[in-house]
Design brief:
The structure holds 2 protein chains of 2 kinds. By secondary structure, chain A is an all-beta fold. Helices cover 0% and strands 49% of the residues of chain A. Chain B contains no helices and 11 strands. Classes of the chains: A mainly beta, B mainly beta. Chains A and B meet through strand 5 and strand 10 of A and strand 4, strand 5, strand 9 and strand 10 of B.
């Protein structure tokens, strides 16, 4: 499968725990994006990263949330001290070039449930 | 904020009917994309548009990039049961580097 790979597909955490979501972009893609989707809503932009750089994190909550895309390995979205409001589907997308030059391809998402 | 207004929010149609949905904004867009999302899945790209006035087809789907660069529409002709899902418009605002999404149009088809 050469598509965007996300894991885990489902994650259950208790309030106060940490959640780590992983994303491997499509082969050859060096641009990664994270989006959050609440039930019955559209996708909300969180962060745009290139290898080892955060390009735009304007959609990321200022506290508890962080993202990285290291030189080697997948991109990680980390949520510390989760609260019930963090329950959502988190989607990763990747693109070959900058977003205005091509299409973004999405993974199947990671669904976080906070108890 | 950077708002995309997508309408209608939902559609209930008979199999075989044509479908039309659109997105509008007060901002100027460089790129319009249309995605389809099915339950439990990620959005799948249907059509990408890059030029004002551009009209592009993908099978029974046709989309256009509005002349004003502030809107786009998607048409589905002769709908079939597998067209059921949520359709999202998405766009990249001039000068920006991020893709913003509309609220989605939920399509339900009665056989």
């Amino acid at each position: 499968n050469a598509g965007v790979m996300q894991n885990p597909r489902h994650l259950v955490r208790r309030r106060g725990q940490e959640a780590r979501l992983r994303c491997s972009p499509m082969k050859g893609h060096s641009h990664v994006y994270w989006y959050r989707q609440l039930p019955e809503e559209g996708l909300k932009f969180m962060v745009y990263l290139q290898k080892e750089n955060i390009i735009d994190e304007s959609g990321m909550p200022k506290e508890r949330f962080s993202a990285e895309f290291p030189k080697e390995g997948p991109s990680i979205l980390r949520i510390q001290q989760v609260v019930r409001g963090d329950s959502a589907a988190y989607f990763c997308a990747s693109s070959l070039g900058q977003p205005n030059t091509g299409e973004l391809f999405f993974g199947e998402g990671s669904r976080l449930t906070v108890l | 904020g950077q708002q995309l207004n997508q309408s209608p929010q939902s559609m209930f149609i008979q199999e075989g009917e044509d479908v039309s949905m659109n997105c509008t904004s007060s901002s100027i867009f460089n790129t319009w994309l249309w995605y389809k999302q099915e339950p439990g899945e990620g959005p799948v790209l249907l059509i990408a548009l890059y030029k004002a006035g551009e009209l592009t087809s993908n099978g029974r789907l046709t989309a256009q990039f509005g002349i004003t660069r502030k809107d786009s529409f998607l048409n589905i002709s002769a709908s079939i049961p597998s067209d059921v899902g949520i359709y999202f418009c998405a766009g990249i605002i001039q000068g920006a580097q991020k893709l913003v999404f509309g609220q989605g149009t939920r399509l339900t088809i009665n056989p």
